[in-house]
Amino acid sequence: MKWKNLTNRVLATPCLLCLTAPARQRGFCQDCEDELPWQPPGCHTCGVALTDTVTTQPSPAWSSGDSDATVHLCFRCRQTQPAFSRCLCTFAYEAPVSSMIRRFKDRGGFPEFRALSNCFIAHFLQHYRDSETVWPDILLPVPLHPSRLRARGFNQALLLARRLSRHTGIPVLAHSCQRRSGTAQRGLDAQARLHNMQGVFSVRTGTALTPGMRLAIIDDVVTTSATTQAMAAVMHSTAAARIDVWALARSNHQPES
């Protein structure tokens, strides 16, 4: 029995982060998983983490039927309701998650992708179980910038959507939305990102989207939400009943008001 336990420890896959303790099912050891930068509760709409200077606003229509419920909204969402209903992100875009996502996107780090997507899928399932709300009808991965797709060889949002689909049975519409070539978003500030996304997305003719569907836009990282806002605005032309955004990670930098 002693030798068997020793063999199991030797053969066990090590944690992706500490590289010493055996990995659990999601790819991390328990200690490292506990210390990941999980996204804290924040703005009810865009999901950004809030500072203690942001107030709350009563919104019974967004609650679970409790007329006394309040929701927390960031400055931008208090001023202008985004084109989507909610943005839910599993992690804050901080180390080590940020470096794991960059390794996956830029250097083909698929072990990192599998581990992070395991956590993402668990978050997705837990949200709908706990909130007792209806699942989306369709998963819509954000189309990758054409030059990025040629250079990278894969669309990380599409891979994430397909993996989520295998665990939920929700179909993926990979080509319902198209993205024209333009300036890439990386390195741009919030205002430049918003301007850059104008007219970028369009709904393809003959798409399988029909009025009344609940859509979930899938992305890897939400920074200023400019990309998902632009895509959600275009998808409203399909008369969707609801549009949510789901992403692996969220940048919590709030532009000055």
How many helices? The count is: 9
The count of β-strands is 8
Strand order of the largest sheet: 3-8-7-4
> What is the overall silhouette?
globular
Mean pLDDT over the residues: 84
Q: Which regions contain 5 or more consecutive residues with pLDDT less than 50? A: 1-10, 58-68
> What share of the residues lie within helices?
25-40%
CATH-derived architecture of the largest domain:
3-Layer(aba) Sandwich
What percentage of the residues does DSSP assign to strands (E)?
A: 15-25%
Structural class: alpha/beta
CATH topology of the largest domain: Rossmann fold
Characterize the main sheet: 4 strands, parallel
Terminal CA distance reads 64 Å
Give the total of domains: 2
- What's the gyration radius in Å? 19 Å
CATH class of the largest domain: Alpha Beta
N-to-C order of helices and strands:
HHEEHEHHEHHEHEEHE
Summarize the topology.
Layout: H1 2-11, H2 30-34, E1 56-58, E2 70-72, H3 75-79, E3 86-92, H4 97-107, H5 110-131, E4 138-141, H6 146-152, H7 156-168, E5 177-179, H8 190-196, E6 201-203, E7 214-222, H9 226-235, E8 242-250
Parallel strand pairs: 3-8, 4-7, 7-8
Antiparallel strand pairs: 1-2, 5-6
Helix pairs in contact: 4-5, 5-7
